[in-house]
From TrEMBL:
Keywords: Hydrolase, Metal-binding, Nuclease, Nucleus. The lineage of its organism: Eukaryota, Viridiplantae, Streptophyta, Embryophyta, Tracheophyta. Its cofactor is a divalent metal cation. Residues 2-133 form the DDE Tnp4 domain. This is DDE Tnp4 domain-containing protein. Belongs to the HARBI1 family. It is found in: Nucleus. GO terms for molecular function: hydrolase activity; metal ion binding; nuclease activity. It comes from the Eukaryota. It comes from Apostasia shenzhenica.
């Protein structure tokens, strides 16, 4: 699991759990151990494999989400505020996919590590993330950071079934009722701004 900022740097990287572990399980473990925290009043954007809480905002399910589904700007009509929210969410989350693309292009070893033990693989991932962050912070002219690199990751869709009720108890991950209120507030403010702009 990783958390990426808009400068394409890793804020958090968790290694040591198998790739087959469920997204929410990994997130819960990171939060409960105290490895990964969300500052008060802040939140991360996550894909629909995660429960929506006030700390982790996910897209609306059952609506268009991936950037390619929305078409060119000139022909874009949203069916409602939820679809527009999903589009804006996907645009922002695309930073994660682009960061993965840069990372894998810079460190080809990340694409094929099966010959290494699990512990060594975890160390390689962490080391590559640290080096990537160093380059991103101190070598601002780095070519990889200024090229639009497509990620080879699969689009982030619903990766597992999420029972949001079981996450009500998980204070560390947040509360789904508070998450729904926050997401609705953000959606409504974005929609109002769009409607106001169109009416000018």
């Amino acid at each position: 699991m990783v958390a990426v900022n808009f400068d394409r740097q890793f804020n958090y990287i968790g290694t040591g759990l198998e790739g087959s572990a469920a997204d929410m399980r990994i997130l819960r473990c990171a939060c409960e151990r105290g490895d990964f925290t969300v500052p008060d009043g802040k939140y991360y954007l996550v894909d629909s494999g995660y429960a929506n809480t006030q700390k982790f905002i996910s897209p609306y399910r059952g609506l268009k989400y991936h950037l390619g589904e929305f078409g060119p700007k000139a022909h874009r009509n949203y069916t409602g505020p939820e679809e527009m929210f999903n589009h804006r969410h996907a645009q922002l989350r695309n930073t994660v996919e682009r960061t993965f693309g840069i990372w894998k292009k810079r460190f080809p070893i990340l694409k094929n590590m099966k010959s290494f033990s699990f512990d060594v693989q975890a160390d390689i991932v962490m080391t590559c993330a640290i080096i990537h962050n160093y380059i991103a912070r101190f070598h601002l002219t780095d070519a990889y950071l200024h090229v639009d690199v497509d990620s080879e990751e699969e689009p982030c869709g619903i990766t597992q079934s999420v029972d949001e009720n079981i996450f009500e108890e998980m204070i560390s991950v947040g509360n789904s009722n508070k998450g729904a209120l926050l997401r609705t507030q953000i959606k409504n403010e974005m929609w109002l701004m769009r409607v106001t702009t169109l009416n000018l």
